[in-house]
Specification:
The complex is a heterotrimer of chains A (332), B (325) and C (307). Chain B is α/β, with parallel strands linked by helices. Chain B has helices spanning 48-55, 82-88, 100-103, 110-121, 126-140, 156-167, 186-203, 214-217, 238-243, 248-255, 296-299, and strands spanning 6-15, 22-32, 37-41, 63-72, 75-76, 93-96, 174-178, 206-211, 223-228, 231-237, 305-307, 310-312. The two termini of chain B are 30 Å apart. The model of chain B has no long low-confidence stretch (mean pLDDT 88). Chain C has a single domain, classed as MetI-like (MetI-like fold, Orthogonal Bundle). Helix content of chain C is 72%, strand content 0%. The two termini of chain C are 34 Å apart. Classes of the chains: A alpha/beta (332), B alpha/beta (325), C mainly alpha (307).
Chain lengths: 332, 325, 307
């Protein structure tokens, strides 16, 4: 189950679960995330891929301490987050694991200049700096993300900048905390196609030059492949497959991953209009045991309805949770 | 084109803002054959949605058609008054919007909305309404029990299909679609596109499909138009445009899609940003960002040159430029 | 990402919300109704500050011929005590205006604190605060006043303002809570939380700045309420009947049956003053409608171009 890496992972989750109560008084439970074991190491970009309802955004918010887990644990450099009691501890964590949001039009407060947002971030996470040092640092990170001239950018309001520029500001802010890992929740989904690639390249540069890991959450497999070292595929709250990007995307094991890949329009691929599934990812309300993909799965067997498949290794570093493609070794 | 069902001639749309008006659509012309699938592709702010709304006569202030004609089945729709427009709306052409939740009435059942639409255009009995509603539901693959559902009770994909079904009520000759799949997930998008194409083959209507996702429309459209800063940069048969894009913007856009199957290569993207439509640079509107710009490009505006089956708005493919290498 | 028909570039909306003074000046200057309201308000402010400029007589001096009709010497005539009504009217502007602004302002502050906190805290805190708000929304002002009047011995204007604030804050609190609720899930608020900001800082520095136009509109509404309600309360004797304000003029006019006794302007003049002041605040509100809802603006522009 372990990857071949050395040292403590930057962030690790064990059995991470988050349920929501819905429906008011009658109170049914929505299983947004169930038993997720995730591992993020230094200097890597991991793509968390899934469609809506897969739980990927909830995972991000759990890692950002926006929600508390229903059960399971999150370990930052080996220490569980539950040990963070004081405001100072929590603040330190937030500085090490900041988040970049999806919507460039609503993730920056329209009433404040970029200078305000950068200053607030630095005051909170690098409190020892003098005013001059803060300004210098703000300019440095803005230049790192490609917003030059930095001084002019600081004076601007969000509405004076394009979507791509605003997302760069968000990355700059995260970078100014000197983080170990940036949680990027669909950072390019709302940007124009020709702008997206610039930000993906920025994320790669942050990994290479600044040594920052990135958890890249997306529904777009093509961009996941372009920028990430490893891919984790989620479906209906579970991880169904994970492994090095090239392995997973060119040799998908789980039937859902295969379905996802077949649905990705690639203009360079030959024309093949296949009959695709019309069904959609389920809202996971009190699902019970069994594989959650079974109702759409062409390979489903009887076992799939009874037992929830666990992640098993299909090749080094590559795991999938499927009774059919990665069956459990029979007890001899 | 002899038997064109839609003939758009030099249509222009301005947004009347506080300063100078912004020209969102600048003298766009094209023709559409019956049963043809035309994809219009472009990034945000290029004017594709505005163009679509102009064709469907759905613009409201501050947007205004400031020139040109939209000749649909022989009649210039720009000149028609509201009453005449209402007569042909939904019967001869219909519209599918980006988000069903915004287009459908949230407090009425789907069936009731279909009934409204049908009764607005003809005297029709309750039985006939029910029968037609079931028919269109069958066309898109929704169980007729959902005629009594409210929009929020359906999943996203089903809602979009319900909207498409509604657009089919009168078997129109033209359906215009504004990014109808962008609110859906990848698999549902694929399924919906396949379905739309099958319906088109079956029923024979023409489609104008506006999207920012080139790859989505690449397998389904007959012709493709690439739009930039209010004008068509390139127009031609889809397969050809993909096999050998001619306009540098098309090339840049095409390259900006990372591929899943091919080799992993570094992508640079297109530098700069789209121009401010209220203050366009003189000359070709793409020249400031174009890797193949020449001195000629800042001097004047290129025409929409014809090159075999295609049209390209680029000096490099015109008589003066070196022939696009 | 697609921006639809109107507002072809989304950033335009944000520019208006940024609320610089330039925007304010433009919004008021460009809106005829608001401009009228501003002018009327300015006139009243001048009268309040420099009453002696226009009214030469001492409003309290009971030296003139009683119940005289309007004339050159007494523009509005005299009261049955022999006071010049016009002077009373002009001098009364100050107190009426002060009551309106102070009561309106305090009510707004209370609305903001309770409404926005309820929305941001959510859950149990929201439940408690909302219940509290609803209770006050339902309490009728006049019976409350009767009860208070029975227990206070000539509390004067302090009691008056207190009553106005207590009865006037709840409506605004509901409105502001709704607005703040709609903002709650906006990414920049989650971003502020993830950045590590404290709750009070988020409310004061992140939420409130984006709600300034609604808060100001709320203040104007509360001021209108205060003007009208104060007049009503003073009319029935609350507040200090010996002070000089429009409401007290109405009180004394009623006590002396002014309408029947031949000096109708004693009642009518303050009535018109109250209406004009309330109207001025209301008209100003139109400018803030526009700032908050930019869709109103371009339409006007188009009409002007064509016409």
């Amino acid at each position: 189950m372990t990857d071949v890496t050395n040292g403590t992972p930057v962030l690790e989750t064990r059995g991470l679960t988050r349920h929501f109560r819905i429906g008011g008084v009658r109170g049914r439970t929505l299983h947004a995330v169930d038993s997720v074991d995730l591992r993020l190491d230094e200097r890597e970009i991991v793509a968390l891929v899934g469609e809506s309802g897969s739980g990927k955004s909830t995972v991000a918010r759990l890692l950002a301490m926006v929600y508390q887990p229903t059960s399971g644990s999150i370990l930052f450099r080996g220490r569980p987050l539950t040990e963070l009691r004081s405001r100072r501890d929590v603040l330190a964590y937030r500085g090490q694991v900041p988040m970049v949001f999806q919507d460039p039009f609503s993730s920056l407060n329209p009433a404040h200049t970029i200078d305000y947002v950068m200053t607030r971030g630095l005051k909170l996470h690098q409190p020892g700096l003098t005013r001059a040092e803060r300004e210098a640092e703000a300019e440095r990170v803005l230049e790192t993300v490609g917003l030059v001239p930095a001084r002019q950018t600081l004076a601007k309001y969000p509405h004076e900048m394009s979507g791509g520029q605003r997302q760069r500001v968000s990355f700059a802010q995260a970078l100014s905390y000197q983080p170990k890992l940036i949680l990027a929740d669909e950072p390019v989904s709302m940007l124009d196609v020709s702008i997206r690639v610039g930000l993906l390249n920025l994320m790669a540069r942050l990994r290479d030059d600044e040594g920052v890991s990135v958890l890249y959450i997306t529904h777009d497999i093509a961009s996941a492949r372009y920028v990430s070292d490893r891919v984790v595929v989620m479906y209906a709250g579970h991880i169904v497959e994970s492994g090095p990007s090239e392995d997973v995307l060119h040799g998908p094991v789980h039937p859902y991953t295969r379905l996802l890949l077949s649905a990705v329009p690639d203009p360079r691929a030959p024309i093949a209009i296949s009959s695709a599934e019309i069904a959609e990812p389920p809202r996971v309300i009190e699902p019970g045991e069994g594989c959650r993909f079974r109702s759409r799965c062409p390979l489903a067997i009887e076992l799939c309805a009874r037992v929830t498949p666990q992640l098993r290794t299909s090749s080094p570093g590559h795991q999938a949770a499927c009774h059919v493609t990665v069956p459990q070794e029979p007890e001899s | 084109m002899a038997d064109a069902i839609l003939d758009v001639r030099e249509i222009s749309v301005d947004y009347l803002t506080r300063g100078s008006p912004a020209r969102a659509v600048d003298h766009v012309s094209f023709e559409l054959r019956p049963g043809e699938f035309l994809g219009i592709v472009g990034e945000s702010g290029c004017g594709k949605s505005t163009l679509l709304f102009a064709i469907a006569q759905l613009l409201s202030p501050p947007a205004q058609i400031t020139g040109g004609e939209v000749i649909f089945k022989g009649t210039n729709m720009v000149e028609l008054r509201e009453k005449a427009l209402r007569a042909i709306r939904w019967r001869d052409y219909s519209v599918v919007m980006q988000s069903a939740m915004n287009a459908l009435n949230p407090v009425k059942t789907i069936g009731a909305q279909y009934a409204d639409a049908m009764r607005a255009h003809q005297k029709i009995s309750k039985d006939a309404i029910l029968e037609r509603s079931r028919e269109v539901f069958a066309l898109v693959g929704i169980d007729p029990v959902h005629l009594r559902s409210f929009p929020h009770q359906l999943s996203g994909g089903m809602r979009q299909r319900a909207m498409i079904a509604m657009a089919l009520l009168f078997s129109p000759d033209l359906i215009v679609m504004d990014e109808p799949t962008s609110a859906l997930d990848v698999v549902a998008q694929r399924a919906l596109m396949v379905q739309i194409k099958e319906l088109q083959r079956e029923l024979g209507f023409a489609i104008i499909f506006v999207t920012h996702d080139m790859s989505l429309v690449s397998h389904f459209s007959d012709r493709l138009a690439v739009m930039y800063a209010g004008r068509f940069a390139e127009l031609g048969p889809t397969r050809e445009v993909f096999a050998s894009p001619m306009h540098p913007y098309t090339v840049g856009l095409f390259d900006a899609f990372p591929s899943v199957n091919g080799p992993k290569v570094y992508i640079g993207g297109i530098p700069g940003a789209p121009p401010d439509l209220a203050a366009l640079p003189g000359g070709c509107s793409f020249a400031p960002r174009c890797p193949r710009a020449m001195a000629l490009c800042t001097g004047g505006e290129p025409e929409f040159y014809q090159v075999a089956e295609r049209r390209v708005r680029c000096f490099r493919h015109g008589p003066e430029g070196g022939d696009g290498d | 990402m697609s921006t639809g028909v109107i507002g072809f570039r989304r950033p335009r909306l944000d520019r208006l919300k940024a609320g610089a003074t330039g925007n304010l000046a433009r919004a008021i200057g460009g809106n005829r109704k608001a401009l009228v309201g501003l002018i009327v308000l300015a006139i009243f402010v001048l009268l309040a500050l420099f009453p002696g400029v226009l009214a030469h007589d001492n409003p309290n001096a009971e030296i003139y011929k009683r119940s005289a009709g309007p004339s050159a010497a007494h523009l509005f005539g005299t009261t049955s005590y022999g006071q010049d009504i016009f002077s009373q009217w002009v001098f009364g502007t100050r107190e009426s205006l002060v009551i309106a602004v102070v009561a309106g302002g305090l009510a707004t502050v209370l609305s903001v604190i309770i409404g926005v906190s309820a929305a941001y805290r959510g859950g149990f805190a929201d439940g408690v605060l909302s219940l509290f708000t609803d209770v006050f929304l339902v309490i009728p002002a006049f019976p409350l006043v009767v009860i208070i009047a029975a227990y206070s011995k000539n509390g004067g204007n302090t009691i008056l303002i207190a009553v106005l604030v207590v009865t006037g804050w709840s409506y605004g609190a509901r409105q502001l809570r709704s607005q703040a609720l709609s903002l709650r899930s906006r990414d920049f608020l989650v971003a502020a939380r993830v950045r590590g900001e404290r709750t009070w800082r988020i409310i004061v520095f992140e939420i409130l700045p984006t709600m300034t136009s609604l808060i100001v509109a709320n203040f104007l509404g509360a001021a209108v309420y205060a003007v009208l309600a104060a007049a009503g309360l003073q009319f029935i004797g609350l507040g200090n009947p010996d002070s000089m304000s429009w409401g007290t003029m109405l009180f004394w006019a009623e006590n002396n049956e002014a309408l029947q006794a031949g000096s109708p302007l004693w009642a009518i003049a303050p009535g018109i003053g109250i209406a004009l002041l309330g109207g001025a605040f209301s008209l100003l509100n139109y400018a803030f409608d526009e700032i908050a809802n930019p869709a109103l603006r371009p339409v006007r522009q188009a009409r002007r171009e064509r016409g």
